[in-house]
Amino acid sequence: MTTKNLYDPLAPAYFDATDARSERDRTFQICSDCRVCVRFCPSFKDLFRMIDTRDDGAHDVSFLSDEEHRQVVDECYQCKLCYVVCPYTPGKEQDWVIDFPRLMLRSLAIQERAGQVSKGAKLLARTDLQGKVATSLAPIVNRTNDVGVVRALMQKTTGIAKDRLLPTYDRVRFGKWFRRRERGRLTTTPATRGHVAMFPTCLVEYQQPSIGRALVGVYERNGIGCDLPEGQVCCGMPWLDAGDTERFAQHARRNVEVLAPEVKAGKAVVVPQPTCAYVVKNEYRDFLGTDDARLVAEHTYDTSEYLMARHREEPLDADFSQGRMYETITWQAACHYRAQQIGPKSRDLMALTGARVTIVERCSAIDGTWGLRAENVEMARKIAKPLMEAVEKAETDLVTGDCHLSNTAIREATGQAPSHPLEVLARAYGIEEA
Length: 434
Known about the structure:
By secondary structure, the chain is an alpha/beta fold. It has 22 helices and 7 strands. It has helices at 17-34, 42-54, 66-75, 81-85, 100-113, 119-124, 127-136, 138-144, 148-158, 174-184, 201-207, 209-221, 237-241, 245-264, 274-288, 291-298, 303-313, 335-339, 345-351, 377-394, 404-414, 421-429; strands at residues 195-198, 225-227, 268-271, 300-302, 328-332, 356-360, 398-401. The protein has a 4-stranded parallel β-sheet, sandwiched between helices. The protein is globular, with a radius of gyration of 22 Å.
């Protein structure tokens, strides 16, 4: 395969295990010679340890066994930060072009086809099914999440560690709240600055609808109408985490079919969770390869990213006289937020309220379910320790973060319950209970 097609899931040789092994050898060699990513995930630390332990000075990594290759693949939790800092990322055709996260994703997909991915990972990928059932039984589900015997059974069947804190479910899903609100409104807030199509994600839809309510309140306060297109499903990232590219493509295709008409009608797509925004912007385009997928990707924004773009055109409403303010805020810049390379837009948004916002650029090592699985817990907590120490030392009025899973990990480790940046704005406007 040419370097242009090395990571293309539509290329004929994408699932060729021999070809992928050859590409890993090439990539591991370049990474070993560079090592700028040694500070990131366990994949690099263990890869370099394996090489340094056995290297005879020839600087040839081909001696690594298939099992050692698999360890490197399994320890990659797709934070994407190595891609951001790598001097060899794709951009022009050259011998050294590499995309480590995409190569690990390709390798995981090959493992899945060989039956080497746990059934628990695929069970956890059914987020919409889980969410619909769990929200209908939310009080019971939330209580049983703290019952030892239930968690022990969950660990055995799904692989989720019994001692990790899990996000709770809300009885009223965001979509249900939004539709009730639309039916019950006597007047409509004028959309003087256009409309957006919301892609709330399963985390907001089932577990933290308050983020979605804050989104609607803040956007409408600034003259931006919010629409919720029918037929959306989970972004599909959990299926990629399980290596099932076919199921992922099914989810991507469904969402593109829903969102493309919205974009063609002149709306931007806004996403309040960084992992899902990254997936729609990057993975849909590559895994589907269609004009509609590219169109949706080009018009998809993180929610703070979109608001700050509108602010540059015309300042957002700065009347915070009726709301609740914070003097100091700590903001965790989640990995998939940074991977979008959009700049600290959530920090800038919260700073409009007058708060002094401190950024913590440290990883929570969750990545969907990777950091929740029993076999990864020890590594995940070690990786996340600098983040948790920074949060505890900050002593600010509030801790915030865009990623609900990262926020749950912060709550588990520090006892502090982070808010989403949109919730900060909603409180400042006095529309917290929108």
